[in-house]
Write a structure and sequence with these properties.
With about 325 residues, the chain is mainly α. The protein folds into two domains: about 1-65, no CATH class; about 145-315, Orthogonal Bundle (Hypothetical protein af1432). Helices cover about 55% and strands about 5% of the residues. The protein has 14 helices and four strands. It has helices at about 45-55, 65-80, 90-110, 115-130, 135-140, 150-170, 175-185, 195-200, 205-215, 215-225, 230-240, 260-275, 285-300, 305-315, and strands spanning about 5-10, 25-30, 30-35, 60. Helix 4 packs across helix 6 (about 150-170), helix 6 (about 150-170) runs antiparallel to helix 7 (about 175-185) and helix 6 packs across helix 12 (about 260-275). It is globular and about 60 Å long.
C-alpha cells in the first residue's frame, strides 16, 4: 500500500486561520511529509500569509485526523459560506475541499447512515451556493491534489448536475437531493478497480478497459444491496456512461430509455473530465471541451436537445 494513502491533501484556502482544529499539519517535500505545525500550536494568519507567499497550495494531515477535521469543516461550512469578507472563489474552494472530504468517506463506507446524512447535507450546501452565486461554477475550480481526482471530479459533476436540473426541471427537493447524492457517488464502482489500472498513464489494454467499464454495474449492484439509495441515485451510478445512440455501457440502452438523470450525468461527467487536469493529460479549455463534446453529440453520444440546453447554461458562466 502506498504511504500516500495515510495522508489527505488540504487546500490552503480551506484552512481558516486562528480557528482551525488542533491537528498536525505537514508539508510534502520530495515525496516525504515534513511537520509544519504540531497539534499544540494554532495555525495563524501569519502562517497563512507565509505559505501563500511561498505559493504553497496544499498542506497535509494524517488520515487518522480526518474525523476531527471533517467535523470542524462541516460544522463551520454554513458560517464560512455566509461570510461577507470571503470572496466567491475562496468560498468555492472551501466548499470543494469539504465536499471532497465527504465523498472520500462515502466511497470508503457508503453503507453507513451517518455518511449518507453528511452527503445529503453537503448536497444542500452545493445547491444553495450554485443558486445564490452567479460565479459559483467558476469558483468551484479544482484545487485538489491530483491523487484525489476521482473525488474532486465527483464534486464538480454534482455541482453541474444540480445546476442543470435546477435550470431545466421542476423537481421536488427530495429528488434534487437524490440527484446530488447520485452525482457525488456516480463513480463509486471505481473502488472495485485496481490502483494499477486507475493510475496507469499509458493507454489501457482491451482487458484493462473492459475492467474499467465494469465500474458502473459493480457500483450499482453494491449500492443497491446497501438498501439506502433511491432509484434516482442508482440510475445515475448505473447509466452515466450510456450513450444516446446505444453505444454506451453497461446495458447498451438508448434514447429516452436512459433515465433523464443518467442522461444529464453523462453530459456533466464528460465535460468535467475534459476541463480537469489529469496526471497524464492537461485540462481542455471550456471552448475546446464544448467543441469535442459537440463532435461526439453529432455522432449520437448525447440527447441533442439536452446537450444544447447544457451548452446554453454553461455559456452563462463561461461567456465568450
Amino acid at each position: 500500500m502506498s504511504k500516500d494513502r495515510y495522508w489527505r491533501a488540504i487546500s490552503l484556502d480551506s484552512i481558516s486561520p486562528d480557528c482551525f482544529p488542533n491537528v498536525a499539519l505537514f508539508l510534502r517535500s520530495g515525496g516525504n511529509y515534513v511537520l509544519y505545525k504540531d497539534p499544540d500550536r494554532k495555525f495563524t494568519s501569519a502562517d497563512f500569509n507565509r505559505l501563500e507567499r511561498n505559493f504553497t497550495e496544499f498542506l497535509y494531515v494524517r488520515s487518522g485526523d480526518m474525523e476531527v477535521l471533517n467535523e470542524f469543516m462541516e460544522k463551520s461550512l454554513a458560517d464560512l459560506l455566509a461570510r461577507e469578507d470571503l470572496g466567491s472563489a475562496a468560498k468555492g474552494r472551501v466548499l470543494y475541499q469539504t465536499s471532497v472530504n465527504c465523498v472520500i468517506d462515502m466511497f470508503e463506507a457508503p453503507e453507513t447512515a451517518s455518511n449518507l446524512a453528511r452527503c445529503r447535507s453537503m448536497v444542500q450546501h452545493i445547491m444553495q451556493f450554485v443558486a445564490a452565486d452567479p460565479h459559483a461554477m467558476e469558483s468551484l475550480q479544482t484545487v485538489i491534489d491530483h491523487n484525489f481526482y476521482i473525488f474532486a471530479h465527483a464534486v464538480q459533476v454534482a455541482a453541474l448536475s444540480l445546476l442543470v436540473h435546477e435550470k431545466l426541471f421542476d423537481l421536488a427537493p427530495d429528488e434534487m437531493a437524490d440527484v446530488g447524492i447520485g452525482s457525488l457517488i456516480h463513480d463509486y464502482g471505481m473502488t472495485f478497480i485496481t490502483s494499477e489500472v486507475l493510475e496507469k498513464n499509458d493507454a489501457l489494454s482491451d482487458i484493462e478497459y473492459y475492467k474499467v467499464k465494469q465500474h458502473t454495474q459493480k457500483g450499482y449492484e453494491y449500492l443497491k444491496r446497501c438498501g439506502n439509495y433511491s432509484e434516482v441515485v442508482l440510475n445515475i451510478v448505473r447509466y452515466h456512461h450510456e450513450r444516446y445512440d446505444g453505444n454506451g455501457y453497461p446495458t447498451g440502452i438508448k434514447g429516452d430509455d436512459i433515465p433523464r438523470s443518467g442522461q444529464v450525468a453523462a453530459i456533466c461527467d464528460v465535460y468535467s473530465a475534459l476541463i480537469m487536469d489529469r496526471a497524464h493529460r492537461k485540462a481542455s479549455s471550456h471552448d475546446d471541451a464544448i467543441k469535442t463534446m459537440r463532435d461526439e453529440a453529432r455522432k449520437g453520444a448525447f440527447n441533442p436537445e439536452l446537450f444544447e440546453r447544457f451548452v446554453e447554461i454553461i455559456a452563462e458562466i463561461h461567456p465568450v
